Amino acid sequence: MNGATITSFLPPDHPRSLCLQYGHVPLTTHGILGILAAVIFFPIGVLCCMIDRRSVCARCGEVLSDGCS
């Protein structure tokens, strides 16, 4: 780190405060429609599976990526 100080109103052991200090822990899940498209329409369906994914932080629950939106 660069020695910067983070000021927050959250207690130091709060999950969001830990994510501010150490970064998010991404947890990615794929939707059932994307998985079915990947199996049925194999070469092109893998692209659909990659679009139909959602990433959330395992520590604080913040949505990091919500598919193609």
Automatic annotation (TrEMBL):
Keywords, in A-Z order: Membrane, Transmembrane, Transmembrane helix
InterPro entries reported for this sequence: BRI3
Transmembrane segments: 32-51
A UniProt-annotated Pfam family: BRI3
Domain of life: Eukaryota
Name recorded for this polypeptide: Uncharacterized protein
